[in-house]
Amino acid sequence: MADGDWQTAAPNTMGFKSDPATSFDELAKTGKLAGVHGVVALRGGRIVFERYMDGNDMRWGQSLGNVAFGPETLHDVRSVTKSIVGLLYGIALAGGKVPGLDEPVIAQFPEYIDLAGDPQRKRLTIRHALTMTLGTEWNENIPYTDPANSEIAMEQAPDRYRFILDRPILIEPGKRWTYSGGAVALLGRIIERGAGQSLPDFARGALFDPLGINAMDWIRGQDGEASAASGLRLAPRSLARIGQMILQDGQWEGRPIVSKSWLDQSFQPAALVDIGWPGMRYGYLWYLGEEAITDRAGTYGERFVAAFGNGGQRLFVFPGLDFVLAITTGNYDSPDQWRAPAAILYNVFLPSLTGT
Prior knowledge:
By secondary structure, the protein is of the alpha+beta class. It is 30% helix and 21% strand.
């Protein structure tokens, strides 16, 4: 169905104990939602909350000035792109287009003969790339405005794939989680080669078109390669649609889009290592978490899966609550970029969904 076919419902008819709009407006008055551009919340597959606010925005670092956001306005989702590439790899794998997870990454790039002969590099598998546990040198902990940031260096390299594959190996693969746009760039290229299509074209045919997502943009680097790490631009409704498909075990309008088995694998803590965020684990390019919820029955853990992007882009999926929350904001590269989406989740929606 197209975005115009979305059904809406009053929150109180979908189990909300208080009106999230009231809490949202009160929070906005405090200034804690500065930079927020769009919020879409679903429960039971219906829109229960939707809000857009004007604000300054960028397209991959280029200023767009003040933008009047609405349901159809595209927005950088930055590293949410990575999680979507994770879904695309699962679709391609089910179609026999890409190698299995325990196949060596370097074997998919035979043009780099000098690297392919390295026994250490032969140990790096597709699974290690999907879980960001390659163990190679990569540093995105410095600002993305700094050319020393590994993703920026990759974008400026004459050959991005050689740059990624030639990184020194620092630790045995599988032993350490290192956030890496390079790992995802490799997966995107493997999908392209197996599908015989560009990554954006494969995404349209395999994921976006079946979900009724008609508007998207996938930014390309200076070398013409679509950025698998951070290049997608989508509207918040489209993000929410992806989250709803996940809630429906990979189905949309009765049609399988992503196999349930791939989603189940993706949402297991494959990287059983510290990722630097308390209580968070990592699956196949998706963050995994659990929130402590207290209600009349006591305290329990509510599991969720999430995709995060620079600037405060968020997609949260809470299967046990039948709840999806998509957020776009313009707080790119800010050290406080996490605050506004966290406030929306923890001060607006979770209390209304789980309070007594």
